[in-house]
Design goal:
Length: 324
């Protein structure tokens, strides 16, 4: 027979177990809810990346891409505008997610050629002024000027007028697909993107609340190159994976999300800062870029750009023809 003095001990020994089960159940439930709300499934059918790359690649020098601009004044930049037609502006667009009280955010990189804004001299002037007077060099070569920042917000009344569809949209989301970069749509809508578009690659981004930020320029790397740098390394034998394979099934709300993808492009492809505008818990990963050796023998942390044997449009035609 159990003594009365042993009852409290037996009873209390079961309480932590019950509480632990309740806590685990609550955590599991919240995890399911969080993944459902935060995953950000891509809203369009991803274009599978063709493996039509050879094993050659380019290693472009992206170190200090803003140093040149910081030594110029606005007047000099405007005078030399005709020589800058091959420049590419690198933007980040930020969207709050639905049903998160604007506390969780999705970001994407948008790359636009300078010549796409030739009919908007006022907008070009705004961008040049921001580059010269506000933006700092990369975090690897910080400015001594405390007024310099790694990114700057573009006035909404300026970017909403830019409807020319010559930009490339680079974003990532979850999807039920295991192939390389299938979580990063790269179809016609993404490669012919207008800067004033409020469409994100995921379906639960709040387009009406989009904000746009300028990070810098590149003299040599366009949006298509950036996509190949992030996605091409996983399809060749000699190139390292660029942080992740970016399959839809690789998505993780905390450790491998859309903002990890954005950081990879900014830091590992363009050599820019991967700091972001007030994302909070949405952006908790400090990406580590692959270490490579340049032709001059210097080690750099950078994702390489593979050389394709066919164009992306040809690759897309092959995918369609094969019924994949």
């Amino acid at each position: 027979m159990m003594s009365a003095s042993s009852s409290p001990t037996t009873s209390s020994s079961h309480r932590p177990t019950v509480k632990a089960l309740l806590v685990l159940a609550a955590v599991a439930y919240l995890g399911v809810i969080a993944r459902h709300n935060l995953q950000g499934d891509i809203s369009s059918q991803p274009l599978r990346l063709s493996t039509s790359y050879n094993d050659n690649y380019e290693l472009l020098d992206t170190s200090g891409p803003l140093d040149r601009l910081n030594t110029k004044n606005v007047a000099e930049q405007q005078t030399s505008e005709s020589n800058n037609d091959n420049e590419y502006f690198v933007f980040l667009q930020k969207f709050p997610l639905q049903n998160t009280w604007q506390m969780i955010f999705h970001t994407e990189v948008v790359v636009c050629p300078r010549n796409s804004f030739h009919n908007h001299a006022d907008f070009l002037s705004t961008l040049d002024q921001l580059l010269a007077e506000t933006l700092s060099p990369t975090t690897d070569a910080p400015s001594n000027d405390s007024t310099k920042v790694p990114f700057v917000k573009v006035p909404e009344e300026k970017w909403t007028e830019q409807s020319n569809s010559k930009c490339v949209q680079l974003g990532y989301g979850g999807a039920a697909c295991p192939s390389v970069c299938c979580g990063s749509p790269h179809g016609n809508d993404n490669t012919n993107y207008a800067l004033n578009s409020r469409h994100a690659v995921i379906g639960n981004a709040m387009g009406d609340a989009k904000q746009l930020f300028l990070y810098g320029v590149s003299d040599s790397i366009n949006g298509m190159d950036a996509y190949r740098a992030v996605c091409g390394g996983s399809t060749t034998k000699t190139m390292p994976t660029c942080v992740s394979k970016w399959a839809g099934t690789d998505y993780n709300p905390l450790t491998n999300n859309c903002n990890t993808f954005t950081s990879t492009i900014l830091k590992c492809v363009y050599g820019l800062s991967d700091a972001k505008p007030n994302l909070g818990i949405s952006d908790m990963v400090n990406v580590a870029c692959p270490m490579e050796k340049r032709d001059d023998g210097m080690d750099v942390q950078q994702c390489l750009i593979p050389v394709m044997t066919t164009s992306l449009s040809d690759a897309a035609d092959e995918v369609m023809a094969d019924g994949r």
